[in-house]
Design a protein that fits this description.
Elements (H helix, E strand, L loop, with lengths): L4 H10 L6 E5 L1 E10 L6 E10 L6 E8 L11 E18 L18 E9 L7 E10 L12 E10 L6 E5 L3 E5 L4 H12 L1
């Protein structure tokens, strides 16, 4: 497999799986759009919807397609649908992945980013099979609050098992990435304030 300097750098970032990271906090993420292909001439398509709220089971989905990805373009590229198995906003507190890896963000995901961990099934019949991966995303705001007209960033999407092992990408998303508090979180804060009054 040929590694470009960018891909080497991203693999180093993605390879720090066992190192200490931020504890995941409750929150939701949704959105997606197109981003650059991994070295190809086309575009990668990314969508995500995930929720981690109030100790309820994490839920959500990730869809991804990069038909011109280097090392996979001759077999139709990278394409999968995935179920989210871990999610959360990376907070300021530090946790130990040895306790529960799904409660701690990868070192590649910094405070303020939202991380999803997923189990995928390839949708490319030329490269079938299941696998695992993770993605870190940043909500860059909307409208006049957006950063230089950018509304979402996939800091990194990395595949660590399965037919797309070694795929690592990242970049600005043409659409939007939105992170929010869990539904009812503001109401909970209001109720707590009322009770203390």
């Amino acid at each position: 497999m040929r590694l470009t300097p960018m891909k080497k750098g991203l693999l180093v970032v993605a390879g720090s799986l066992a190192m200490t990271g931020c504890v995941k906090m409750d929150g939701t993420v949704s959105g997606g759009g197109t981003m650059h292909s991994l070295g190809g001439k086309g575009k990668a398509v990314f969508t995500v919807n995930a929720q981690r709220c109030d100790d309820k089971p994490v839920k959500g989905h990730v869809n991804f397609r990069d038909e011109t990805a280097i090392d996979w373009q001759e077999k139709g590229g990278v394409a999968f649908k995935a179920d989210v198995i871990g999610a959360g906003l990376c907070g300021p507190d530090i946790g130990d992945p040895a306790d529960d890896p799904l409660l701690v963000c990868q070192q590649a995901c910094e405070t303020g980013m939202y991380q999803v961990d997923f189990e995928y099934d390839s949708t490319n019949p030329l490269n079938p099979g299941p696998g695992t991966g993770f993605a870190c995303m940043t909500d860059l705001g909307e409208g006049i609050n957006g950063y230089k007209k950018m509304h979402g960033l996939v800091n990194v999407i990395a595949i660590n098992a399965g037919p797309y092992l070694g795929y690592v990408n990242g970049g600005v998303v043409s659409g939007n990435i939105q992170t929010k508090e869990c539904p009812g979180a503001k109401n909970d804060d209001t109720e707590a304030t009322d009770e203390n009054a």
